[in-house]
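Hey L., structure's done. Input below.
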Amino acid sequence: MRSGQIFHKMFFRPTWISFSVLACAYLAKGQDSSFQKTDRGMDIHVGTAEVELAVATPTAFRLSISYQGKPVASPSTFLAPETKTDNTTWQVVHQDALVGISSAAGKLLIDPQTGQWTLEDAQGGTLIPLSDMGKPGTEPGPKKTQVPGIDLPLAWKPGSPIQVYGSGNGSPTLLQSDGDTHLANGIAVLPYYWSPNGYAVLAVTANDNLPASWTAADQSSLTWHFPGTSADLYLMPAATLKAAAQADTQLTGFSPVPPRWTLGYIQSRYGWTDRAYVEDTLNQFRTLKIPVDAFIIDFEWYTPQNDYKVPAIGESGFSDFGWNPGLFPDPATQLASYRKQGLHFVGIRKPRIANSETLAFLREKGWMPEIDPAAKPSYHQRDANWPNADFRAWYAEQSQPLLKTGGIGGWWNDEGESSFTNYYYWNEAEVDAFNAVQPDQRFWSLNRSFSPGVQRWGAASWTGDIRSTWAFFQRTPTDLLNWGLAGMPYTACDIGGFLPEAPGGETTPEMLSRWMEAGVFFPIMRTHSDKKVTAHFPWLFGPDAQVAMTKAIDLRYRLIPYYYSLAYETHETGVPMMRPLIMEFPNDPKVADLSDQWMMGSGLMAAPVMQQGATTRSVYLPQDRWFPFESTAAMDGNQTITATAKLDEIPVYVRAGTILPLGPIVQSTDEMPGGPLDLQIYPGKDATFTFVEDDGESTQYLKGAFRKTTFTWNDATRELSWTSEGSYTGSHAFTQMNVTLFDPSGKKSLTAPLDPTGSVHIPSA
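Output:
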């Protein structure tokens, strides 16, 4: 992830199958069907193809095609293990000349004579018009050779442009019209999308490292390109983006609840020089009362020099699994001390090995590719063979002594885009090591890209080596929103930019302040910088910027009770906490491609200033009633307003009918609760919110060790009531609360104990 590194395409397209979406007339009635029933659907012979229509989950069908024997659903890292054992109720149906299967989600139908197929929703509405089965084809492969594949064409609803959501961040907009699947530095374009026509689709090939992609030649059809001689298309009727997120997560797997500290402020940099520098920086945070929960440290935590110039055979004595004595002369004592001060350590990891003796051993075992003498010299010649289970077991074993040191909160995985599945298998090895040493603790990693299913491990992703420019800043929310729609709910960026726009350039105090303010409303708030520039520490950019950044970080910590509860919602439903407005307001065309303001959950809308020199910005309020954060000045929606924001101010709005749980300002999440819960009610409608607490670190929440308090606001009677469930009663649980009603006639407040059940009435006068 360093300066000078290029973006890499992660695969060639050797063989393809393409599903074209073609507008076709319905077939004549009266054709008999011929099929063989299977455990999950039916097999049908169509020309030279064998086709299976099957249920995958309660919200997804699978259309499988094979040109070499009967279709068998391809095993895939993309799919959650439970997908293979799901017991969805379904039945065979006949509809005119078509035969197919029906479930509560809808119908998947096919004409056994022609192979044309269609997808319907549960009400019988057509989501995908009759589409051709497709045919084998060829595509350019490695070294410009022609290799076999299958082109399967998808019909599009007439009059509806081919624009989709959720394929990833290959486009600078929310609406996308290209599915060129690949991974690169901070880029993830996935074989998935949601169509405004009312369905989502995930494509799975026989080889995850040769994923499918799609193109749209015109506005009547798009074509899925599958490498190989078989194809699996998972089809999910979903009327909204929120329904699509839930259906896709049922297929690819639910994210665990992350450690609570990952929702605090994270300070990263390349260029921590020595132990004194690390500890002086921590002391500055604590002395200046600027909250922080983690330091992320680059190469220097384990090696004095990076490995970019290490030859393909490696370098004798290079430390791949040790501690750099310059920073960590006594790692166990140091990390224990940092943890007592509320700080977690996260270290960078690379997908390769640099020690020559280790490389020789791995190549002798056949666990790493041999050196290609004809290849251009590159550190990628030392990339590990992550799909190899024996190598992963070895890697996990080498990592365990590091974890036994204690105090390692997680890993920062960088430069793994040379294969589409690298991050998946890399995280699997890290999880195995983590579970061997501390099995009751939650795993967390931050990765420079991702593929479907990586979220199951507890992985997060960041947008790579971006530059310190307003343009990169302005694109960041779009990238994070696109990743959230693609199935990666926990996303981050290098706040302030990693690299300067030009040699010798610096992030300005204004840019860093505004970027930090936007970061309050990112799933992960993480600042980063290269060693050649001023570290992005708040106190190094002048008093005005320090005040602005401290206020932003303070607000982040106040929001943690809300964000942590949203993390539980993501864990249970798959809906990300950071949402484009179109996810919450699906019928408003004005927000279809709006991404410079967004929702956190369903009730909080952020509209940070992201223009250089600006102290105002326009803000669109969707149809509803809206309150400026912590204000009683309610405003009608369906209008655009002008918001004013000085350098230390952020335009933030709360939707009527929102219950917002906030905490006091603490210096790290270890200090929570740190006082009473601040429960804010924004009236105008009835409201509910489930506030969740647990120990923040262990996996005991999976066994019921949480407390879920469901608050209910009755707007007519002005009564707040609540009930609780779960067994958690630990030290991080709130016991008191201050309830504030932001009534347009005047703010009302009262205090109450946070008992398992209760109610309070807030009088109008």
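The chain is about 20% helix and 30% strand. The chain has four domains: 20-160+192-252, 260-573, 578-653, 658-761.

-- N.
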